[in-house]
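[step 3/7] inverse_fold.run input=structure_tokens len=114
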């Protein structure tokens, strides 16, 4: 069982930055698949970025070069640094961890004003 707690969302103007954090209730050292997803009203949940145990990353094309995912195993935390935010980045952002099953956080709202 893994519980995930996200933080760092909020309201920001276009061009601004936010850093999201997702802290797990147990060690993430052995967890290979961790990532961030987002969902806007009326849309399906979509991948934003993932990171493996070895530090390999993958990004959605719409956020590449603006967002950066990282993990701190000592803190059991995965981060999403978001720079150059755009109104279309407005969504609820969810942390996801995959072990023998998939775990989701409760989500954190990110709102980007134009």
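[step 3/7] decode complete -> sequence:
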């Amino acid at each position: 069982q893994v519980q995930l707690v996200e933080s760092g969302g909020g309201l920001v103007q276009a061009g601004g930055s936010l850093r999201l954090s997702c802290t797990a209730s147990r060690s993430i050292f052995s967890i290979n698949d961790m990532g961030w997803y987002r969902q806007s009203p009326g849309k399906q949940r979509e991948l934003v970025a993932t990171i493996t145990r070895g530090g390999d990353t993958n990004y959605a094309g719409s956020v590449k070069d603006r967002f950066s995912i990282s993990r701190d195993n000592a803190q059991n935390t995965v981060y999403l640094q978001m720079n150059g935010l755009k109104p279309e980045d407005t969504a609820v952002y969810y942390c996801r961890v995959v072990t023998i099953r998939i775990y989701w956080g409760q989500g954190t709202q990110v709102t980007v004003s134009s």
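[step 4/7] annotate
The chain is about 0% helix and 55% strand.
The CA atoms of residues 33 and 98 lie 5 Å apart.
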